[in-house]
Amino acid sequence: MLNKTIVLLFTLMSSLLIAQNQVKPKYDVFSFDKEVTLPGTPEEIFDAVTGDISGWWDHSFSEHPKKFFIEPKPGGGFWEIFDDEGNGVLHATVIYADRGKILRFDGPLGLSGKAIQVVTTYQFEPVGTDSTLFKVSIHAAGEVDEGVPEIVESVWNHFIFERLEPYIKSGKHLIKN
């Protein structure tokens, strides 16, 4: 009986020591806003940033996704489909959609696998008769490693200013396949 007690005590103490030495994730919050004026009505820009987004969104979990799209309705998905079998990723879920006004989705996006929630809001405001102020707001909370906020903001700069803006200005969003 004494041996069993000693073994149990040793096991519990070892477990405690191991748990104390494990690195716990850092929890934090971050947010930022971006905006750009794009040629086109709010409805045209809304349509360009929903549905098939493969023309301008270039970060994916698979090397060559079969489909990349956002379903612009409450409960709709921000999907990356890998293949014909339907394997893929649900990057986020649409929680608010009002065509030409607002789109909001909630999900980890590229941070899948971390205990993090990212709420992304797109807002569309008319500028004159032929342009739209496209605003993107990111609010994140959860497991945030050092440097992640800066990386995420840099990626969004890439999406908006290096991918989406030239895509819209070139008129590619108006070409229907």
Characteristics of this structure?
177 residues; alpha+beta; Alpha-D-Glucose-1,6-Bisphosphate, Chain A, domain 4; eight-stranded antiparallel β-sheet; 3 helices
Strand content: 35-45%
Q: Within the CATH hierarchy, at the fold level, what is the topology?
A: Alpha-D-Glucose-1,6-Bisphosphate, Chain A, domain 4
Average pLDDT: 88
Q: What helical percentage do the residues reach?
A: 25-40%
Please identify the oligomeric state: single chain
Give the full name of the CATH homologous superfamily. START domain
Given the structure, what is the number of helices?
A: 3
Sequence stretches where pLDDT stays below 50 over 5 or more residues: 5-12
Summarize the structure in words.
By secondary structure, the protein is of the alpha+beta class. It contains 3 helices and 8 strands, in the order H-E-H-E-E-E-E-E-E-E-H. It has a single domain (25-174), classed as Alpha-D-Glucose-1,6-Bisphosphate, Chain A, domain 4. It is 28% helix and 37% strand. It starts with a helix and ends in an 8-residue tail after the last helix.
